[in-house]
Fold this sequence. Notes:
Strand order of the largest sheet: 6-5-8-9-10-3-4-7
Order of helices and strands: HHEEEEEEEHEEE
Shape: elongated
Distance between the termini: 80 Å
Number of domains: 2
Radius of gyration: 25 Å
Largest sheet: 8 strands, antiparallel
Amino acid sequence: MKIEDVVKVLNENQGVLAAIPIVVGIVFWLLKKKKANSIPQNSSYISAGRNISADGDIIVDGHKTIRTTIQRDEAVPEIHLQLYGAGSKRTIEGHVEKKGDITLILELIEINGSKTEFEQQFTKLLFLKNLHFSDSLFTTKTPEIKVKVVYRTLDGKKYELTQMMNQTTRADGLFNISLIGVPGIRKVK
């Protein structure tokens, strides 16, 4: 068969040729859907979402998040932490948000060993402003920045949230910092 004959056949059957990628795409989509639905119920797997817990280290974007262990039979009052720091102000701001109706008490926030202590009750949202930690967070490149938040329930059950932070360089040579990765929550006592 000559090249001219192949070109002639391809030109005469353009509709069939256009349908081939569509059919292949549908087949791959069906296979992917079948595989997603075929995970056995007792299998271990990680579901990407807002809250992921694991009994081991989790690596997110090349940054190690903190090892977490939570008792499965216990309701853990989870918090969502939003913190950021601007190099120009050299302060940390943000908020702590909680789901549910239980009242919690924020005890401390620690960033790489530099602590700010609290004794602040909250039920839904607690705003944090002008928190001062080590100036080196904003002036010196730090490969690993670990945030620890300790909070407790009114009946004294204490929990610890840990999460990593990342620095981004500013034009003035200082650093902005922000949270990265997935937080880990564990019961302390």
